[in-house]
Amino acid sequence: MIIVSGQWLRPQDIENWQIEQHLKPLLKEMIETPVQFDYHSIAELIFELKLRMNIVASAKALYKSGAKFATFLKTYGNTAYWRVSPEGALELKYRMSPSKAIRDIAKNGPFYAFECATAIVVIYYLALIDTIGEEKFDASFDNIILYDWHYEKLPIYTETGHHYFLGDCLYFKNPEFDPQKAQWRGENVIVLGEDKYFAHGLGILSGKQIIDKLNSFRRMGAVQQAYLMPQATRLDVPSLYRIVR
């Protein structure tokens, strides 16, 4: 369900809305779900719809970029924009444009390798640039470090439940992973719709395909299969909207 300024938004309330056609299925889904989304204004709601669609597009762009999966100690990036810390963090170089550096990952993917949580943050940044533009992004996110779930001012939260939407980040857990391949203890993914997910290092796959891949990285004698955890990680759009507007 959607609450705008304390008022419940009903399906009939949006019949005459002049919004882009590709946003309407997501809007309808969010109205009909038991998950509650709260906004201060219609502008915030439209911002979320556009951002979620851009998250999906950014996940596909990262997949097509050729950026590789790597553990923290084997992380690398385009040295024109980034330096790599001893811990495996990509640190934006002094006076470099944050938006251009982030866009470079999608443009020159073969120059990059990082793990899956970092990939999710990269996708969020790419989507935000496409939503608000480079100038606003650079003004709001001027000290970027790409490392695991490290993010600058992005308001991110995780909520339990079984209702997922386009652009959500989910987690497939592999409880009996091979200790020699600990990077496969689980996989962060972006929901693309129609049972398709982007999983950095694995590709664009169905839920079953991701579970089968993770099962192949279990320890000897393992009996418990990998599984999708009942939770979703999302951007807190009302908070983000106040940061970037």
From TrEMBL:
<dbReference type="GO" id="GO:0030435">
    <property type="term" value="P:sporulation resulting in formation of a cellular spore"/>
</dbReference>
<protein>
    <recommendedName>
        <fullName>Protein-glutamine gamma-glutamyltransferase</fullName>
        <ecNumber>2.3.2.13</ecNumber>
    </recommendedName>
</protein>
<dbReference type="InterPro" id="IPR020916">
    <property type="entry name" value="Gln_gamma-glutamylTfrase_bac"/>
</dbReference>
<dbReference type="GO" id="GO:0003810">
    <property type="term" value="F:protein-glutamine gamma-glutamyltransferase activity"/>
</dbReference>
<keyword id="KW-0749">Sporulation</keyword>
<keyword id="KW-0808">Transferase</keyword>
<keyword id="KW-0012">Acyltransferase</keyword>
<dbReference type="Pfam" id="PF20085">
    <property type="entry name" value="TGL"/>
</dbReference>
<comment type="similarity">
    <text>Belongs to the bacillus TGase family.</text>
</comment>
<comment type="function">
    <text>Probably plays a role in the assembly of the spore coat proteins by catalyzing epsilon-(gamma-glutamyl)lysine cross-links.</text>
</comment>
